[in-house]
Amino acid sequence: MKMLFFGTGAADWNIKDRVDGQFHRRLTSVLLNDDLMIDCSTETPDFFETNDVELGNVDNILITHTHRDHYSPAAISQIFHDGSVTVNAEERSLGKLKAELSCSVEGLKLFESKRIGEYDVIAVIANHSVQDPCEQPVNYIISRGDKTIFWGCDSGWIHNLSWHEIRRHKFDLMVFDGTLGDLDGDNRIFEHNNLNMIREIVATMKREEIIKPGGKLMISHMSKYAHGTHEELQKLMDEIGVIVAYDGMEIEF
Hints:
Largest sheet: 7 strands, mixed
Number of strands: 14
Low-confidence stretches: none
Order of helices and strands: EEEHEHEHEEEEEHEHEHEE
Number of domains: 1
Radius of gyration: 17 Å
CATH topology: Metallo-beta-lactamase, Chain A
Strand order of the largest sheet: 6-5-4-3-2-1-14
Number of helices: 6
Distance between the termini: 6 Å
Structural class: alpha/beta
CATH architecture: 4-Layer Sandwich
CATH class: Alpha Beta
CATH superfamily: Ribonuclease Z/Hydroxyacylglutathione hydrolase-like
Mean pLDDT: 96
């Protein structure tokens, strides 16, 4: 399996501020193999305008939550103008999605496996919030054949109920929310991870043997203002064996 990162930034990145030749992160979204997208933001179409990516096989999108940096009806319509894609999300957000999208929309129940294309998908509770109190942001456990991944953006710390589901699996790839750096007293830790939280989560995944031998651990969704350069962040994460994602990175596992 493989994952291509369309964008790796948190909501404080803005494509209008991009300067040619300078490092930039688009808002977070990815492509799993060539047929399953996770999130589609206002900036996702920009990736296809500047990169040669074939999307003809994409028939499903998983939406984690409806913040604009993860979900854009306009972007979905622009990319899949013929309505040939199905958007999948936790069932409490279906009313909003059906009202805003012209394509097919389907729901997932928390902690229940659902077959989506070639994948078995489980939505678990994300430690994150949106304006609508009825909507539940989610992370995803995704399996195909003998390969399993965990997608953990956006979320701060792992919700206890989600942990009990996660520990039932062994993962080839785990991608965690890496929004915050080592800033002290940042109140965003209640819905995003700082680097100390990443260190604790990674240590636990290794000790509990949740990650398979040879499995990959990564972070994405980095804030523009909470980190140093990409190289500085990668040097810090090298100490615990974590790969820092960047736009255009493709990783096989």
